[in-house]
Amino acid sequence: MSEVSPAILDTVQRPAAPSAFSNALVFGWRAVLKFRHVPEQLFDLVMTPLMFTLLFTFVFGGALAGSTGDYLQFFLPGILVQTVVFNSVYSGMGLSTDLSKGLFERFRSLPIWSLAPFAGLMVGDVLRHLIAGLIILGVGLVLGYRPEAGLAGVVFSFLLLFAIGFGVGWIFLVLGLLIRTPMTVMTIGFTFIFPLVFASNIMVRPQTMPGWLEAFVVRNPVSHMTTALRGLMAGSATAAEVLLALLAPAVLTVLLAPVVLWLYRRN
Amino acid sequence: MNDTALARRPATKGETAPLAISARGLVKHFGDVRALDGIDLDVPRGTIFAILGPNGAGKTTLIRLLATLLSPDAGSATVMGHDLVAEPQAVRAAIALTGQFASLDEDLTGRENLLMLARLWGFRGRAARQRADALLAAFDLSDAGRKQVSAYSGGMRRRLDIAASLIVTPGILFLDEPTTGLDPKARQGVWRMIRQLARAGVTVLLTTQYLEEADQLAARIAVIDHGRKIAEGTSRELKAQIGSGFLHVAPADQAHLDKAAAILEARLGNPVQRSAEGAQLSVVAASAQVANEALSALLAAGIDLADFSMGSPSLDEVFFALTGQGLDEEEREQRP
Q: What ipTM did this prediction achieve?
């Protein structure tokens, strides 16, 4: 390696300390850069939900709802919920990667707002949910899905999706802080998430299920989220439905956000 | 550096030159493991100070603690005049840490990594870009600046990692095993860079497993083991304590090992160590003259030698000299 040029050894003073908000923006910028450098992650984000959409609409749709068109109208809001819940894993995996690579050691040794890195994770989450949601909605529109409440319904639906992603994300952040292998974060997280997503009203109306399962499904938070999203897209949502959908994300945030902070700050 | 005795330097009061680091009685537990067991440390400003010890001795724990990543269970320290526990943000503003493994974002380019850190330090817009580009140029990474770090070689990562610690000139640069895993050429490069930084007034605290590295770079060396400091001094002082030259002897016939060991011990008056494989004997020889006499004695006794050499003591031998016991591999691996 060549000599370090003497110029670099001129003492460089620290500029005025940036604000906490400015720190957070830098981490948000980092999240955007990751999308630019690793575009193949978009494939991971939307491939499974697109396969589900096509499979359920065209293979099972007729049998489940009488026609593929009717089924798509029923199914599409649900697959958006499923997509956001599953894609919440990426923040936890990213956190686990950063911790295992020692990147957080550097962040923590800097004189910055200690929670700024989490702001970056949230920016990444919102981008992921927005991009995946728009692609799936776009495909749905091409296949004949029509949100009766129009643009306003779509906007409110996406806000609800962000809230759901934010709430569920805490589960994976806790796992990401505890587990140093990103793949294990995903496997363990999905062990909890899978039954909740599949034993819900996303794909099939619970009335057709055996009584014991129906009893679970109608109480499943994922079912509440799906019901609210269908209502928002159709323009028929009640305040009670939306609040019920927000209950689980709110509870997860209240319970797990302090755990995440504690795990992050503990040595 | 001064060549005064190994005696502990006086505490901050009465010290003429201000200390970069002054630590007293630092203790850190991990469960039942006492990773640091009462470490005192005084590092003068503008010098290179080496922490020498085997894996698991507590080197990394000590650096992480001084860089505010861990809080001590007992003891106190000031870093660049700021209390470690009471003023962690002031300490962070005065230090930079380059950990044992490159702490970089693999998905981003080298330039973006530096830009991110420059912005976190408070550089804006063009100033941040200028700082990132200047560091890339200085560390011979301009051509690779727009490549993702995942495509970098080990030496390039290490350079970028150190560059990332110099966004703002730190008062103290902590380097945790800066050359572990590097080839000899890259190692020389890192050594040159560390010397230049010290000449520019940066205090460098580095950890190493290699006596040679500490010897080459550091004005002062602290040897630690099991979380305790077992010796401290200049390289010359430590060598005087350990014995500067080691005579390594390998008898052609292994059946002669015991006899050869007895002769060496009698001639040189120092305990003889056997290598892990048992085929080589090592013993402190005060001078080439006495080493030569000992070799003659072996030959006169009819012991043929496959190989012999004079050299610096290895870390094993340092520990043997300081503690009277070697570091067997098993023990080393068991430690966390």
A: 0.80
